[in-house]
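At this stage, I wrote out one protein, both as residues and as discrete backbone shape codes, and that material follows here.
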Amino acid sequence: MKRVLTAVLAMTLLTAPAWAGGRRGCAPSCESYGPSCGPSYTVAWVEKDVMTYQCVLKSKDVEALVWQQKWTDKVDKGEALVWQQKWTDKVDKGEYVTYKQKWTEKVDKGEALVWQQKWTDKVDKGEYVTYQAKLTPKKGKATVWTPTQKKVEGVVTRCGSVPVSVCDPCNPCRTYTVCKPVTWQEAVSYYVCDYVKSEVDVEYQVCEWVEVKTPYENKYQVCEWVQVKQPYENKYQVCEWVEVKTPYENKYQVCEWVQVKQPYENKYQVCEWVQVKVPSKQYYYDTVAVPTKVKVPVYVPCAPSPVVCGY
């Protein structure tokens, strides 16, 4: 508390205004306060040593308690029951039955009725009729038409062109000649063909078909199917299944699960939290006295003056 009061007093002294004789550095004159003011003072600033206090961050070496993990090795020993496979050899003996094919040869004999072709020679005799053309000469009359020329008179129309003078319509003084087509008739004589009918004696042939008989002889064969007894001998094989016994010996293994005691050793670690002292720094604030020089006002009374102090 004393340190705080000292600091406040020092700040008050540093910030207080100074007046001397109505001028800067003088106190106000009596006249400024009235006739009953009293004597005036002058201020003198004097340096003095003052003790001030400041907050300073400091540190110190200490030992701190911290929690750390501590691992401890442990071992568990004992016996555990485990299941294991146990294989046992076994043998099965006996006979198994199989079947095999047995082929036996057999013969069948006898007579079989078969159909065979039988060819027989035959002859057919007779006459066959044909027709032949026979030409016979004959006489007779025939009508013929004979062409004859006959002269006749007639009129025919003919055509031609004759020269004619024509006047040019664009130039009447000019004429030119053109050909004009004309027709006329003329009496002419000409021959025409005329056919005259007449009968004449002619010889001609008449065709007749005459029947002609020709003898023939036709030889041929006739096929007949007849039954014939034919001996046969049929060889074949018969299959039989015969039982066969075969001894066997079967070796195998049987698996059994048995319990066996097996020692074990289990290593593991256990974690514990323990307190350990470790070096550390502790920081704190401390108030330190610092000597400082400050200017302190000293008031000195001054003689009365007719001059009024002012600005």
